Amino acid sequence: MNEAPRQITLREWDDRYERLQTRGVRQPVYGGPLGRHVADGDTRLLKLRYDSSLAALRLWNFLLTEEDRLRAARDAGKKLVGTMKDLGTVPVMAYSLDNLVAFYPDGAWWIPCVMEVNSGLLQIADSLGIDESFCPVRAMLGAFVTGTHFPIPDLLTCSVGATCDDFSAIAQRLNGLGHPILWWEIPHRRAPEVEEEAVQLPGDFSAPKGQIEFVQSELERVKTALEDLAGQSLGAEALAGGIAKANHVRWLLAQLRHLAFTATLCPMPALEMLIAEMLAIHFCSDQDETIVVLQELLEEVNLRVAAGTGYSSADAARVFWVNPVADLQVMNFLEDCGGRICGTEYLFAHALDPIPQTVPPMEALAQIALADPMVGSAADRAVRIVAEVRRFGAEAVIVSRIPGASHCALEGEIIGEIVRQECGLPVLEIEVPPLTDAMSPTLRTRLEALVETVENRRSR
Ligand code: SF4
């Protein structure tokens, strides 16, 4: 579509959708006006602003129809695997088998935002002893109790060990509620000792070979469980094919991120880019369609970059964003305040790194699991952030804290200190709850102040 990009409301999208229909523009089977999702209770959609491209429409409709897709997969005889916490590793195995569909029940994290806390999920978590001292992922417990947000999976897996306390406690509670879980352990990633054989991981971390071997043995247990569920064996060739396909998704995202973060004018807003990045972790329950959705977004972005069109101005403050926001609306705020995203670390950077294809596939998956920024120290994570800040030429860093999240108590300070020391950039730490309405003036003021700081530093 060769129109100047602009951010529009849900109502504007619905009007636009009608006009597109009149012109005979074809939609995928899950397509339709975005406004229809509000009837499902997704009222936050009314407050967001969306990119005006057909590619963005497809992205949003794809995201918002995942539950239907999961139910359709079950009706078609496929088995559902709820993969918890590892963010991007076990689904690669599951999607290498043609009758499994994997998804992250953890995605319930965003339900309190999208349904504006009207879903009752947090109250259910409260009643089960998992109160607001835990991060919003506690909504997942409520979703399992009601069974109305995703079908109950046929198999549940969860990584433990170097996992945040929140998830550990919540998954244990889930297990206690009668949902059996296949636990697999991921150790805290540590630097190799002098006498140990070191392995360079994706994302430039390193780990002792012994840790890779241990994680591989744990993943072998998961693979056996997946094979039992699928009634098929997963050979090295099929798994290598699955890795190649996952890498294609990651490659598309790498192109998209590079253009979105480095083009003179930002060609795709922060909110759509966040959703696109999320597709990497479990392909929104349809890997083939994820590829199509990302290809369309990339085509749109390529067209915009070639035409020199995009958002805000060429001198928008270039911001690197750390952690996903519990309230999606805050991504809109950044652009309102004169910023743009130039680099992200949304807790799943390892799901964006290419999976090594030069080592046996199970070893490659062990490497990518250990490359998870959240299974090492916050200082390790900061080093990776510094490298990315430099790569994308960011001028400021925002660390958005997640309410209740155990890792957020101290990581902002550590990341902030290392970023300031290494890059000399301003770092802003903000807390973003699932609904920011009451505090949005304060949040906007802080974002504006950061943008002003960036502008002042340029004129020094
Ligand atoms: S505490 Fe952080 S890492 Fe753990 S589940 Fe919540 S958001 Fe994810």
Describe the structure.
It is a single chain. With 460 residues, the chain is α/β, with parallel strands linked by helices. It has a domain at 238-458: Rossmann fold. It is built from 17 helices and twelve strands. It has helices at 10-22, 54-64, 66-75, 90-94, 111-114, 121-127, 139-146, 165-176, 209-230, 236-262, 270-282, 287-307, 329-336, 361-370, 378-392, 411-423, 440-458, and strands at residues 7-8, 50-51, 79-84, 100-103, 155-161, 182-186, 198-200, 206-208, 317-322, 339-345, 396-401, 427-431. The protein has a four-stranded parallel sheet with strand order 4-3-5-6. It has a four-stranded parallel sheet with strand order 10-9-11-12. β11 (396-401), α16 (411-423) and β12 (427-431) form a beta-alpha-beta unit. It starts with 6 loop residues before the first strand and ends with a helix. Iron/sulfur cluster binds next to α8.
Descriptors for this entry?
alpha/beta; binds iron/sulfur cluster; 12 strands; Rossmann fold
Mean pLDDT: 95
Radius of gyration: 21 Å
What is the CATH C level class of the domain at 238-458, in words? Alpha Beta
Q: What is the terminal-to-terminal distance?
A: 41 Å
According to CATH, the fold-level topology of the domain at 238-458 is Rossmann fold
The CATH architecture of the domain at 238-458 can be named as 3-Layer(aba) Sandwich
Strand line-up in the sheet with most strands: 4-3-5-6
Short description:
The chain has 460 residues and is of the alpha/beta class. Helices cover 47% and strands 12% of the residues.
